Amino acid sequence: MLLGTQRVNARGHLEIGGCDTLDLAREFGTPLYVMDEATIRGNCRALRAAYAKRYPTSLMLFAAKAFINMAICRIMDEEGMGLDLSSGGELYTALKAGFPLERAYLHGNNKAPWELELALDHGVGRIVLDNEREMALLQELAAARGRVQDVLLRLSPGIKPQTHSYIQTGQIDTKFGMGISTGCAMNGLRTALTMPNLRIVGLHCHIGSNIMGLDSFEMAARMMIRFAAHVRDELKLTICELDLGGGVGVRYTPDQEPPSAEDYAEAVITGLHDELAKYDLPPLLLLQEPGRSIVGEAGTTLYTIGTIKDVPGIRRYVSVDGGMSDNPRPALYEAKYSTLVANKPEAPLTQKVTIAGKHCECDNLIFDADLPDVASGDLLAVQTTGAYNYSMASNYNRFTKPAVVLVNDGQAELIAARETLDDLLSHDVIPERLQKSCAACG
Ligand code: LLP
């Protein structure tokens, strides 16, 4: 399987964005996250075009949690995307990258006062309120500033899409949002309407992540519009914006067929048009906020193969120089990945092995990977690591986070430097009573 701009070049090596992956590994070291700029931009454009042609009043947001740093915020700005920000840290990153925050939506189920203050003080376009505690807090902070803040309310439509249970979020039993069927959503709106410094402009839902079927997206669109009609009748409130979240899956393995941007837009907008007409509602601003489907397939992680160990008659473990600190998804969600040996991607596949990480854990990255003959020193490329890998990376076992390079048209540019061993120590504090004078601790 080759994705995006991946191809096998004249040297017989895996190339991404016109860059030979062996050169990338030599220049930047491994493990290395490689992000394919053309694929990221192409995904933004395909999504925007698919929506714009069916429903002109739409705005596409990128769910920054999938992959965020300052360079990506710049790309999203250039592509005319908005941003879905899920924390003060993501907001601060966008702010420092010069992203126009009127196109930002701040999410979260337990926002801290400082996060709301940061949003208010820097003109974040919309705050998506999850619950009544947040409403009261925002009302107080906005009033203190003499501001009226545009808000959306996050609802739970009661839809359980087909995906790993840890990433289902649209069902009634969830920490996210206010349930429609439980009455919490209508009560929440009533409460918000009593708050003079909040202007309710819209409703939001996000039913889950890595979803391959389109039915649940269409169903969510229909249910949210029905609820908007109910709100109009009950509260005389016009809903001007509807944010239907993200959640479309990507291709991790060759057998997977994720929906295209066109199919996604078609399903959602068919549901939307039908219900708007049925309930005689005026058109509203439609938002979607995908993360994985924008950056997932654009990312490849390069690792150097080290120890190769046979458990006789049972399994061969091929260990790489990273693991669960740069990709926790197999451990968390039993996620599957595909792989190529970057220095010989076309060599005949001769064996089934387990790709293991190097943590003090059973941090297998891929069970039953089909590989050619490999030796220590070969370069392994794990595909579709652009979403929720770098953004979920940790320093477990005091591993340093890998560098990220952006590749495009034969050019490779660092967009996140590799952490150093001293970075690991930079937040450590030894209280004076525990200090001992030794050459090493200075
Ligand atoms: N909007 C909201 C409110 C969300 O919570 C999420 C993802 C998205 C949009 C973007 O969803 P996407 O299009 O990326 O599926 N760490 C997990 C995924 C967690 C998703 C969290 N929310 C994983 O690695 O699979």
Describe the structure.
The structure is a single chain. The protein is an alpha/beta fold. The chain folds into 2 domains: 159 residues, Lyase, Ornithine Decarboxylase, Chain A, domain 1 (Beta Barrel), CATH 2.40.37; 184 residues, TIM Barrel. Helices cover 29% and strands 24% of the residues. Strands 4, 14, 15, 16, 17, 18, 19, 20 and 21 form a 9-stranded mixed β-sheet that branches. An 8-stranded parallel β-barrel has the order 5-6-7-8-9-11-12-13, surrounded by 7 helices. The longest helix has 21 residues. The N and C termini lie far apart (51 Å). The mean pLDDT is 96. It binds ligand LLP. Ligand LLP binds next to helix 10 and helix 11.
Compile the SSE list and pairings:
Layout: E1 7-8, E2 14-16, E3 19-20, H1 21-28, E4 32-36, H2 37-54, E5 58-63, H3 70-78, E6 82-85, H4 88-96, E7 104-106, H5 113-121, E8 126-129, H6 132-144, E9 149-156, E10 178-179, H7 184-193, E11 198-204, H8 215-235, E12 241-243, H9 261-278, E13 285-288, H10 292-295, E14 299-311, E15 315-320, H11 329-333, E16 339-341, E17 351-356, E18 364-371, E19 379-383, E20 403-408, E21 411-416, H12 421-425
Parallel strand pairs: 4-20, 5-6, 5-13, 6-7, 7-8, 8-9, 9-10, 9-11, 11-12, 12-13, 15-17
Antiparallel strand pairs: 1-2, 2-3, 4-14, 14-15, 14-19, 16-19, 17-18, 20-21
Helix pairs in contact: 2-9, 4-5, 5-6, 8-9
The chain binds ligand LLP.
Ligand LLP is lined by residues 63, 65-66, 84, 107, 167, 206, 209-210, 245-248, 289-293, 329, 333, 387-388, 392.
